[in-house]
Amino acid sequence: MRKHILTTIALALGLGLTASAQSFLENSQVNGSFQTDAQYYMRDNGIDINDLYGKKMGINGFGKVNYTNGNFTAGMRFEAFLPEMNGFRQELNGVGLANFFASYDNGFIGMTVGDIYDQFGCGFVFRTYEEWSLGMDNALRGARVVLRPTQGVTLKGVYGRQRFFWYPYLERDMGAEEYRGIVRGVDAEWDLNQSIPAMNDTKFKMSVGGSFVSKKQEDMSLFYYIPENVGAAAGRIRLGYGNWAFSTEYAYKINDPSAINNFIYKEGRAILSSLSYSQKGFGAVLQVKRIDNMSFKSMYTGKQNDLDINFIPPINYTHTHSLPSMYTYSTQPNGEMAAQLQVNYTIPKGTALGGKYGTKLAFNFSQVNDIIRDSVIDHGNMVINKPGTLGYSSPFFGVSDHRFFRDINFEVDKKISQKWHLTAQYINLYYDIETIEGHAGAPVVQANIGFLDVTYKLNRKQSLRLELQGLWEKEVHAGYEYEESEKKDYQKRGDWAFALLEYTITPHWSFSIADKWNYGNPVEEYRDHYFTGTVSYTHEATRIMLTAGRQSEGVVCVGGVCRTVPASSGVMLTVSTAF
Amino acid sequence: MKKLSIIIAAAALMLLVGGCDKIDINNTHKPFEPISGGKTVLIKDFTGVRCVNCPAAADYVHELQHRLGEDRIMVLSVHAGFLAQPVGQFPDFLTEEGTLWYNDNSSNPLFAVDYVSLMDGNTLYVEQIDTPVSEALSEPRLFSIDIWNTYDEDSRRLTVENTFTCEGDSEGKYYATVCLVEDSIVGWQTIPGGVDREYVFRNVFRGTLNGAAGELVSNGSVFFDDSFVVTNSMELDTIYNADQCYILTYIYDYESGKVLQTAMEKIK
User: Fold this and answer.
1) Chain B hits for A178, Cβ within 8 Å
2) Which pTM does this prediction carry?
3) Which one of A576, B20, B66, B198 is at 20 to 30 Å from A503 when CA atoms are compared?
4) Which residues in chain B touch residue A226, judged by CB atoms under 8 angstroms apart?
5) Contact A162, A181 (CB under 8 A)
């Protein structure tokens, strides 16, 4: 009898579990993506690559899988850099599980453990993110709680230690605390339109928010008393009325002496304001930004693009074509005053200039200058930026004459007929290469840049695209006198021409050939051609791309964060898929 | 909800109170605390006469040396890289060995703390050297070095006898490099805002007596109290001021390039 009862219970439990498991699986969703970038390097005396230093190949790859079931989400990312491609940090070399997390969110409370990507406001005091093309990942490994106690109110708390390549996270592991500290932060956001019923359907929109983030890192300096707890706070407001929108965020950071700011004890400040107007066919955005000593890292000795707790948004136009993107601005966390105006206008269809399909016009102006730095008194002496002092004083609205960057561009985008499509852009560029890229003593890049991008549809499936681009420097070009010892600083300088022809058979195939020619380099031996040929095949979410040829030296920038790409020659393969 | 608000407010308050340390601006420098032990540390300062940021970096290193003890911190100013190439009136301190140690880097100033050359893992900016210096000072001393210089004023012949004595048991391939250093040379140096025509160059590396890699001292096991003698000689260039010349000798692990001990002695 007893045996029968046990069997019955076991069967019932088994059936229950099976039904439960079935229901569980039915609610499951799995998605992910994979990508492998591999580059085979070859010697190429023509562009001065005479030695590969034993590295014939670089491979960067990742696989990401996320699982969702109702309120529960979990995911992981596996990475392999064996070895890392040239231009990526050597510390990436390795293979392993780089990222994992589990999260539960029922609308009232959300909790995440593992690697956290998040942002408070515009990122002035906290932003963790991953950018594959930069080889950058500053995820916070720890915990996050999100509370929504009432409609329109969101409270967040985060706590953890940032990813630093493959270095260990735990203090009991050798060196974990030596390389970076702990980050903890809170953020609150209140959307008044959601909270107050009377404001639900009004034209007036308003939300306010505030954040506080603190890092704790051990003081290991032999010279200076380093604050072990460094806090930063920010407040923000967003207002909207009809077609108008205004937002601003102000951030303050307490004394944070670090390698980036030359160990000065000045507080940091930042403000970003944005005013925009939009209506059908017209949009304009005006932005201003001031940054003063706002590098905020979880390792005070760090100087490179790693372990950043915060993010300083760039307010510059993002160019995507080859020559215009050669000189992309990299944000200067120690100080900058920036402004940007972007205007978009579409000339309506059916007008003389608009034609049958309308004509899109875009104008952008952005400029970045240094802030003013006045000396401060240290033991009776006037000093500027001396370690162990307040460093400097700076009037909040003062703008230095030292210009870092200016970009004035105008773009026309026009569909001429069913078969023809044209995009043309003119750019006037000023780029202080000494400050932005660290080429000491190198003359400023002042250039006129233009491109024409024409697409012609041969039939419903096939099209041809031609890009013609030119970059003409005002001062540095063939014949410019340079010092022999500074030759290396001129590797990508002077005038350039670029042409690309692409043949596409939708939806699968694309073939292109391109040449980038530094014909006006002041150094004769640098007047090189960079030929490339590319074939790509796309099938649904899978893409295979093979590129052979030369790659010129340059920078890759995403969101004002840049990495240098050395010149190379060889074959590159990219395989990516998603599900 | 009220309880929840109180908990959240309390957590935020705790973070605000505990999350900031304000340092008194009149008291930002730490007092010098001597570090016990006999290990010396070699800082190779890769610098250049036309490098605008190098004088400040050299000052930093010499302040470090002053604070931690000149008998414990040895500085070797190695002029290398394109900013060290002489143009016009700028002095020429380039050396073949220095260029080799520089390892084709592209900027100055750079530092190697207790390493032979600028290789992966030990190329440092000046602000990053505190911790490696502190760590290196705390390491046990494996060798002691005794330098005996004999200098003949007439012939300008210098003979250097280095004795390396083991202070523990170990195994490895140990090399020693014997360097000539000249101190307090006056000449042109780029500084912020222009050129200092009477800049005083400290601890300038003039070359080695036995090559960039030095020479083999021992290969295999070494035991406490073992001693090895290496003798070298050279003729001092007439432009060198013998009164300001030193011999700096270091012994290092050949496989890792890690410097184990350094010593310095005036030639006169």
Assistant:
1) 131
2) 0.77
3) A576
4) 23
5) no
Judged by CB atoms closer than 8 Å, whether chains meet at A301 and B128 is answered as yes
Considering only the beta carbons, identify the residue of A150, A185, A254 that sits closest to B20: A254
Q: pLDDT tens digit string along B172-225?
A: 999 999 999 999 999 998 877 677 888 999 999 999 999 999 999 999 999 999
Distance CA B18, CA B10 (A): 12
Digit-coded pLDDT (tens) for A555-572: 777 777 777 788 899 999
In chain B, whose CA is at the least distance from the CA of A214?
B19
Does the beta carbon of B31 lie under 8 angstroms from any beta carbon of chain A? no
Classify residue B83 as exposed, middle or buried by CB count within 10 Å of its CB (0-12, 13-18, 19+): buried
First-residue to last-residue Cα distance in chain B:
82
Task: Quote the CA–CA distance of A402 and B45 in Å, as a whole number.
Answer: 31
Q: What is the DSSP letter of A305?
A: S
Domains of chain B by start residue, with CATH: 35-140+178-210+242-266 (3.40.30)
Residue in chain A nearest B52 by alpha carbon? A440
Report the alpha-carbon distance of residue B89 to residue B87 in Å, rounded: 6
Q: Angle CA(A203)–CA(A205)–CA(A209) in degrees, nearest 5?
A: 180
CA geometry: angle B114, B116, B121, nearest 5 deg: 70
Measured between CB atoms, does B239 come within 8 Å of chain A? Answer: no
The verdict on A108 touching B (C-beta cutoff 8 Å) is: no
Q: Give the C-alpha separation, A484 to A505, whole Å.
A: 49
Smallest CA-to-CA distance from A493 within A458, A435, A560, A446 is with: A446
> Which amino acid type is present at position B229?
V
Give which of B3, B15, B59, B104 to mutate to test A binding, by max A Cβ within 10 Å. Answer: B15
Tell me what ipTM this predicted complex has.
0.81
